[in-house]
Write a structure and sequence with these properties.
alpha/beta; seven-stranded parallel beta sheet
Amino acid sequence: MKNCFVMITGSSQGLGYEMAQVLSQQGATVFHINRNDNMMCDLHVDLSQTARIDYACEVLSSVLEQHKDKRWVLINNAGALGPVHIYKQTDEFSAESYERLMNLNAVAPLKLSMTVLKKAEQLGIQEVRILSISSGAARHPYAGWSAYCMSKAALDMAMETLSVQAPAFAKIVSLAPGVVDTGMQTLIRQKDSGYFPNSQRFHDLKNQAKLSSPSDTAQQIIRYLNSSDFGHKLKDDIRNYE
C-alpha cells in the first residue's frame, strides 16, 4: 500500500481501527474520518448529520489536492445498528432516528465516494478503489432490523448505481465482512427478544466462539483490497475468500 492515500471512516474502534492499523503498517498514508475526536482523527465529523456530510465532502476535496501523486482508496466503514424493533414498538422510535441512520450508513458513503471520483477525474488520478462495508443484512431480512437492513441495502444499491457511471479508473465494492466480534455485536446481544426475535442466534454465535475477530477480518479485507479480485464482483462477501 505504499504510495497510496487511504481515507477511512469509523477508524477509531472495531473493524475500522484494525483496518487502519494494517494499512499504516503496509506504508499507506491514512486519513481518519471519525465522530470521536481522538489521536486517530484527521477529520472530526458526525456523518449522521446532513450538513456535516456536506462539510466532510468539502474538506476531503481540499485535502485530496495534496495527494495528486498517489493512488487513492476510500473505505466507507462507519456505520450503526440504529433503531431495533418490530412493528408493535414503532411509536417508541422517531422518524428522525431512521434519517440519521440512513445518513450514516448510506448517504455519507455515496456522497464521499462521488466527491473522491469527481476530484480524481479532475486531477487525472490513475487508480481509485472504493470499498464500502456492507452487511449480510443488506441481502437478507431480519425481524426487528427494518432500519438496519434498509440502510445497508441502500448502501449496496448506492454503490451499484455509482459503479455504472464511474470512470474506468475506479473499482467499487460493497463488501459484507461476516459476523465480527465488535461493539455492534455486544449491542445486538443486549436487545430484548421482543424487539429483536433473532437475538438468541447471536448469543449462540458468541457462546460457540463463531464470531470472527476484528484483527483477522481486517487482515482478510485489506488482502482482498490489494488483490486482483477486487472489483470483479460489486456486491461481495469476505467469507468467499477464506
